[in-house]
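Morning, I've got a small favour to ask if you have a moment. It would help a lot if you went through both lines with me. Thanks so much in advance, here it is.

***
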Amino acid sequence: MDLRELRKETAAILAEARVDSPRLEADLLIHHITGWERASLLAHPERLFPDGLFPVLAEALERRAAREPLQYITGVCEFMGRTFRVGPGCLVPRPETELLVLESSKYFREGTFLDWGTGSGCIAASILLENPESRCVAVDGSPRAIAWAWRNFKERGLLGRCLLCHSPSFERIPMPPGGFGMIVSNPPYIPTGVIPGLMPEVSRYEPLCALDGGDDGSDHYRSLARWARTALAPGGALIVEMGSDEQAEELISVTRGAMTVLSVVRDLRGSTRVVVLMRSPF
């Protein structure tokens, strides 16, 4: 079968499964299996697809038609211009989370920071790579997520600068002398009742522990904010991804009197996406 017909049939199957951007995703699956760049797929529609790869494509297509995340099938995800390993058991990095990393660069250059809920490790790794004099404690309550983070840190040569910690509680997190210079977090913030109605890629496949923020989505904001008051070094920054304006207001309210608001960053839709708070330097 030539690529013209294969791309058409693959896209039709994905469209029937109600996958967004079926033509693009068809090309991405073919690229993943063959290594042929998308430009080559478009430029050479007469090229024949290797017969030996049809079973591989069929399996990948079946998984994607069942709405398994494309990133779980390919095993990789782009974040901050870099490729990270991902798969079942860790949250797929979102483009909007890049705002968290970009904002952190304004308040932290060196010293030790904490990434709470590290998942794939993409946030911590990005900050470490941009700040050679920094070190990190990366924490997650899921051993499967920790395994993905370890792999990403190893491939980037960062294991010597990052302590991976499997801990479901704050009490077990190792603290540097004087506290952390920065705490960053993309915590679970989706209200429990909302999760079943999310797109199948999220509700069926991504780990519930990385999504569920309790009844109002703010459970982890409250607990993290209380702990950060003493875990941060004086003058240290707490930088958190938000799920809504209301959650941002809740976080600011919980920390009022103990921390100062440095920045509130909105995404392209105008919703609050990142809040930066600072512990008093005194």
Notes: The beta strands are 76-79, 82-85, 111-116, 134-140, 162-166, 180-185, 232-241, 259-266, 272-279.
